[in-house]
Every structure is written in C-alpha cells, then in structure tokens.
Amino acid sequence: MAKLRIQFENGDPEKVIEFDPAKAPFHHDGKPGSILDVMLGHGVHLEHACGGNCACTTCHVIVKQGFNKLGESSEQEEDLLDKAPGLTPTSRLGCQAVIEDPNAEIVVVIPRYTINQVSEAAEE
Predict the structure, then answer these.
(1) DSSP strand E in 1-124: where?
(2) Is 30 left (phi over 0), alpha (psi -120 to 50) or beta?
(3) pLDDT, tens digit (0-9, with 9 covering 90-100), for 1-15
(4) Per-residue pLDDT for 124 more than 80?
C-alpha cells in the first residue's frame, strides 16, 4: 500500500492516507492517482479552483519526502508553478503529481497561502 502523509502549514492535524494506486481514480478532479485525486477521494480537502485541470496554482503542495516517486512534471505544470507563492525546488501541483509506485511513502506540506486565480480574475 502506498502512503500519503499530509502536513498543513496552518496547524491543522496531520492526515495519513493508505491506498492502492492501481485503484485510481478515487475522485473526478486531477489526473488519476494524483495527490489531489487521492486526497479528495479520501475526504481530505485540497483547494483546486480550476477543477484539477492544470490551469491554476491553488493545489500547490511541497513534497518533503518521495519526490522521486511521483510522475514527471509537464512543461505546463512547471510554468504554472513559477506563479505559486512559497515555491520550493520540490513544489508540485497536486492535480498533476501522480503517485504510481504501490510502495511509495510521500510526505507533502499544504502551504498556508495560495493564489486563487478565479477570485482574483473576478475582482479585476
């Protein structure tokens, strides 16, 4: 079983999800087996203003462990990540970071702040 450990910068209690990547998708948002898909499918909220379509940065996560166990990032994801607040060398978009290894142990931090592009666009 793969394990996804979720830590929250805002102080919410840590969550741990054990799952079988072969049973993806778990939800309808993000790539099947992505961090977003796994979290939503197991009742853990992750902001995703664009519906998990790689069109914003609200599902930005920081991978603290297991970065090399995730699927490769696309050029589109890399371009969007440049706009994410708190960007780190191990930042990923939760909707695109697919957990493929059935024995993976991934630890992610959910940043306190995100840019909700939908709200910002409505204010312009």
Answers:
(1) 2-8, 15-19, 60-65, 91-93, 105-110
(2) left
(3) 999 999 999 999 999
(4) no
